[in-house]
Amino acid sequence: MLLLDEFESLVQVKSRDDLLAATVEFAQRLGFEKVGMFAVADHAQGEPEFACVNNTPAGYWRESTDPDNGRRDPVMQHCKRSGVPIAWNHATYSAASEAAMWERQASFGYCTGIAYALHLPGGMHFFVGVDRDQSLPACRAEVRRLVAELQLFTVHAQESAFRVLLPPSPEPDMPDLTARELECLRWTMEGKTAWELGRILGISEQTAVRHVNNGTHKLDAVNKHHAVVKALRLGLIR
To answer: What is the pTM assigned to this prediction?
Structure first.
């Protein structure tokens, strides 16, 4: 199994190139030449974010990233739906009536392999696959060992992979509204006029207007109603 210091090195990778190098080194220790690592972040609105590192041959890159091929590929479909590792070979593709796909990828060295996907909270998904042009070991215990090592590697790699490949967007600067400006926006949300704000808060109508205008300006809103919507979205008022 991997040593603790090798896990620590993996956790500390700083770049995409470092991550690829660590993954290739791991795969080669297991006896595999090819690697693929994918990080995916689903979003409630819009397309999912997708990033990868691999050492796919240039001549096979376009086919390997073709979404239509991915929807047909039995290994990718298994990993998309399951958190159970898969050790695959020609029979895997033949059983899915995709022997021609296997023949094509085998010409680039993808004859057998092991793949594993983590399906994480928050719509995050992480996949690691190792591939080679030789048969998998005939000994089932040896295959189980290889699968276990891939699982262990994947668990330790996922945090670094998301940090390097899909870093979170920086949080927007929160507008600095005063307590009085927020209070005026809260009452504006309730449909109160500036005159009513003055009566409720014990201030003049002109002062109430100034607080609402200041809040609108700080929120970069076009009017007080837009300011209320933005304040709600930012969690400044409820």
So the answer is: 0.70
